[in-house]
Amino acid sequence: MRHGDKINNLGRTTAHRKALMGNLSRQLIEHKRIFTTLAKAKALRVFIEPIITRSKVDNMNNRRVAFSHLQDKESIKELFGVIGDKVANRPGGYTRIIKLQQRMGDAADMAMIELVDFNTIYNVEDEASAAKKTRRSRRSGGKKSTSEETAHEPAPAVAASEEAPTENTVDTAEGEEESVSL
Prior knowledge:
Blueprint: H1 14-31, E1 33-37, H2 38-54, H3 60-70, H4 73-86, E2 95-99, E3 110-115, H5 127-132, H6 146-152, E4 169-171, E5 177-179
Antiparallel strand pairs: 1-3, 2-3, 4-5
């Protein structure tokens, strides 16, 4: 029975598993999105989320704890600099796992794991551009301003009795119209 066994061992020894999670974490911090198997992505989410939570408060203890897991100075700088600032207001759920098609060679379930706040695919428009977007109606809007009316106003219609001559009529000297065939 596996009561209380919350760690997915991934078929590896403890040292190998810790090294794997550290490597995947460093790559996720560096690239913001990685492709791996679904099982590794789920295990990575459990591993990296507490570390990202620590990056919200930049003090020496949190940096040391994060370094003990990641073992890379550049990743710590990126984590506590860029990523920590982006996730400061987020209460949790810093990563997203998206299932992909199976791998061709061994039919392993593949997944993409990414940092939610660094997404460029799904959040095409950010909040700033959403605020600028105006609602458009299909109906005619309110009354136009006078400058627009004069610029686009059509010429007044001519009364039927004062109609301008058409292409096939010609005015004569007596004021009568003659029909001309072309």
